[in-house]
Amino acid sequence: MNATPPLLPRAQSSLRSPVVVWPWPIALGLLTSFGLASALLGQHGVWLVLSWIALSIPLVVTLACLVQAGRRAPLSKGGLS
Amino acid sequence: MTTTTLRRWFVVHKWTSLICTLFLLVVCVTGLPMLFSEQIWDAFVGDDDPPYEVLPPGTPNTSLDVMVSKARAMFPGQIVTQVNPDDDEPAVLVSMAPSWQALKDDDKYPDRHSGHWIKFDARTAKILKQSRPANAPKSPRTWTGIILDTATRLHMNLFAGLPGALFMGGMGMLFVASLVSGTVLYGRYMKRLPFGTVRRDRAARLAWLDLHNLLGAATLAWALVVGFTGFVNELQTPLFGLWRITDVRQILKPYAHLPVVSQDHLSSVQAAFDTAAKAAPGNEVTGLSFPGAPFGSPVHYVLWTHGATPLRARLFTPVLVDARSGELTGAYPMPWYLRFLEISRPLHFGDYGGMPLKVLWALLDLVVIAVLVSGVVLWAGKRKLSTDMRLRALDFDLEDAGTVPARAEHAR
User: Do A32 and B222 touch (CB under 8 A)?
Assistant: First the structure.
């Protein structure tokens, strides 16, 4: 799937160098697990709040990535296919 | 990872996802109203119960025996089947029936409901409400009720009872397999991409793939937990059945041959509640079945107790109290597989952390729907491609048939 030459210099740089894949998914997974457990085991005010915060972070990160993607190439959706 | 291994993982991901996606979509969509069913019910239907009498705080509850004898006096010749104090409100529900046999016979006639109940104020023992008499005209069903009921039954078993539940459990297992294989593929696809990249400046297919990867990675842990606990929940009927034919049968063996004791000379119901509370310390007693109840003993009160914390709230410990003498026979904690089931329930329902947790549950659910939809788009796009190739192989002229209008669309 990487056979076609990249079309933009920015894309080129990000395609060439290998990046570390797992830190982000693992961090989000741990946050989710913590959020699920802290409300279940903690039951009290602060644990509930921590649970809400921990479970919101994956959603916030997703939203941030989407917003960033939207800003980067607002007009070219599907244009070069 | 060799190309062959990768191809195998891809095939696993493709097929496990394809098979379960439609059902997963049903489950995700119907789960949303179920999550907020209490709020929906309150907003659109509400209850017409009279408000509770305002009494000074700390007013002690009346003995349950008073309510039981009141109920028996109202329906002489009938039996009391259950006594259930409400968990949240100062009310006690006393259930009755003409006889155990009549209740059993109800199964044969879907329209017959010989059981009925009386709701008492727990503090004053005044009657608050009664169930509608069996021969009264049925109240019209509300739209809210129909929608919530349909959603629940679709979610649990597609209107197909136990086979439906087991089928949905199988779909849950496939979903977990698809998540695991998807994670392996994610590692491969994202090798040269920073986390969260969505390439909108290239082929639309890549944007969908990036979106599928981003949303999937962000919700992976949640989807695994809710998917797996959903699978465990679908096994509840066989698991309870297993318990019934093993431990429960063993416990009740010495009493199985005895006739059901008459309700005229039973020991105190209130005392049975107190005995059960002592026998299962830290637990709340939520209900009592009278001797002769299905799956119960002919001579015992069966009291259901559950833990007081969210983690243990669905861990039930039944307590047997001899209804002839009022003596404790024993408390029977559930076997490990039922404990596992009970713990997996809050993790599936998302109902243990207040309204914010429910809202988060709904949002994560919506993201999973987006993962499913993007997965279908990726599959459908690829399918079209391979169909095109197949058609070309058959010497169809695709330049005229499909590609030209598509190009014209792009030119606009």
Answer: yes
- Side-chain-side CA neighbours of B166 within 13 Å: the count stands at 5
SS3 of B297-352: CCCEEEEEEEECCCCCCCCEEEEEEECCCCCEEEECCCCHHHHHHHHHHHHHHCCC
Percent of chain B with pLDDT over 70: 92
Residue-range domain boundaries for chain A: 24-72
CA distance B371 to chain A (A): 12
- Spell out the domains of chain B, with CATH numbers in brackets: 3-39+145-234+354-390 (no CATH), 64-141 (3.10.450), 236-349 (no CATH)
Structure confidence by residue, pLDDT tens digits, B191-222: 888 898 898 888 888 899 999 999 999 999 99
A55 touches chain B (CB under 8 A): yes
More confident residue, A63 or B107: A63
First-to-last C-alpha distance (Å) of chain A: 15
Q: Closest Cα to residue B126, out of B56, B82, B75, B66?
A: B66
Residue B399's pLDDT is 55
**What is the ipTM metric for this complex?**
0.80
Report CB contact under 8 Å: A23, B195. Answer: yes
- A60 contacts in B (CB within 8 Å)? none
Give me the numbers of helices (H) and strands (E) for chain B, helices first please: 14, 8
Tell me the per-residue pLDDT of B77-106, one tens digit each, with 9 for 90 and over.
999 999 999 988 899 999 999 999 998 888
Which of A53, A57, A65 has the most B C-beta neighbours within 10 Å, making it the best mutation to test the interface with B?
A65
Concatenating the DSSP letter of every residue in B199-220 gives: --SS-HHHHHHHHHHHHHHHHH
Of A21, A55, A61, the CB nearest to B187: A21
* DSSP 8-class letter at B308: S
Mention every residue, 6+ apart, whose C-beta is less than 8 A from residue B89.
B52
* Torsion of Cα atoms, B376 then B189 then A20 then A63, to 10°: -30
Structure tokens at B183: 């994670």
SS3 A8: coil
Alpha carbon distance B85, B96 (integer Å): 15
Mutation choice for A interface testing from B184, B193, B200 by most A CBs within 10 A = B200
* Mean pLDDT (whole number) for B15-44: 94
User: Coil, strand or helix: which one is B296?
Assistant: coil
Residues A12, A19: Cα–Cα separation, whole Å: 13
Q: How far is A4 from chain B (nearest CA, A)?
A: 11
Minimum-distance CB partner of B218 among A28, A70, A73: A28
Whether residue B191 and residue A41 make contact (CB cut-off 8 A), yes or no, is no
Neighboring chain B residues of A71 at a CB cutoff of 8 Å: none
Residue A11, judged by CB atoms within 10 A of its CB (0-12, 13-18, 19+), counts as: middle
